[in-house]
């Protein structure tokens, strides 16, 4: 297939720049502790300085892969599929989620919300970033709001974002991994004073699993 044809399929979402795919335990948020198959899509221009998967940013370094191959691989492992990145909404998620749902699989996404929402989702984890804020629609659709806390100013940002989500959205504060020792006590104190929030930890890192 020539390059122009591949690029056209990527633009349609019929191929995606696949960084990695793996079966593991969901480590964060509402579904922590459950088995899931992760599909990590390349491409992100949000640019968080503390991002732990910066190798995902450049989509050109990850091979365009057909959604048929991706969904077939996923179906062999789990009925819960988590699409992450990078920023997966950089791409049209309609074809991939339709393919997954045609196989009876549940579709979850982890996103900054910085791009228009595409795809059909059973669960949306919204994790807003200051450098490129979510677009309006996803606040209404999000099932959980996961705010990363790097320093004390992030509590104010978290409250600003929580004011925009729907009333059923579950609110999480999660320490940035390199700042856990400093920020966990701050988060615990904050949640005790503001109990509508819950603590989220990257439990997969404590368990030493991918």
Automatic annotation (TrEMBL):
Catalytically driven reaction(s): 6-carboxy-5,6,7,8-tetrahydropterin + H(+) = 7-carboxy-7-carbaguanine + NH4(+)
Positions annotated to bind substrate: 25-27, 40, 84, 210
Family statement drawn from the similarity comment of this UniProt entry: Belongs to the radical SAM superfamily. 7-carboxy-7-deazaguanine synthase family.
Pathway recorded for this protein: Purine metabolism; 7-cyano-7-deazaguanine biosynthesis
Function statement: Catalyzes the complex heterocyclic radical-mediated conversion of 6-carboxy-5,6,7,8-tetrahydropterin (CPH4) to 7-carboxy-7-deazaguanine (CDG), a step common to the biosynthetic pathways of all 7-deazapurine-containing compounds.
Coiled coil: none
PROSITE patterns noted in UniProt: RADICAL_SAM
Name of the protein in its database record: 7-carboxy-7-deazaguanine synthase
Subunit structure: Homodimer.
Binding residues annotated for [4Fe-4S] cluster, in chain numbering: 44, 48, 51
Enzyme class: lyase
Organism: Leptobacterium flavescens
């Amino acid at each position: 297939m020539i390059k122009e044809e591949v690029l056209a399929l990527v633009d349609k979402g019929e191929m995606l720049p696949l960084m990695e795919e793996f079966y593991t335990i969901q480590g964060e948020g509402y579904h922590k502790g459950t088995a899931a198959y992760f599909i990590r899509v390349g491409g992100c221009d949000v640019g968080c300085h503390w991002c732990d998967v910066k190798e995902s940013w450049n989509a050109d370094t990850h091979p365009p892969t057909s959604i048929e191959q991706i969904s077939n691989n996923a179906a062999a492992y789990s009925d819960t599929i988590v699409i992450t990145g990078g920023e997966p909404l950089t791409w049209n998620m309609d074809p991939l989620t339709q393919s997954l749902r045609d196989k009876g699989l549940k579709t979850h996404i982890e996103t900054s919300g910085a791009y228009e929402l595409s795809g059909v989702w059973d669960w949306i984890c919204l994790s807003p970033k200051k450098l490129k804020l979510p677009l309006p629609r996803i606040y209404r659709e999000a099932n959980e709001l996961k705010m990363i806390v790097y320093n004390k100013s992030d509590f104010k940002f978290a409250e600003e974002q929580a004011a925009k989500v729907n009333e059923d959205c579950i609110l999480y504060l999660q320490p940035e991994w390199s700042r856990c020792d400093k920020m966990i006590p701050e988060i615990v104190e904050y949640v005790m004073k503001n109990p509508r929030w819950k603590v989220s930890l990257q439990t997969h890192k404590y368990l030493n699993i991918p």
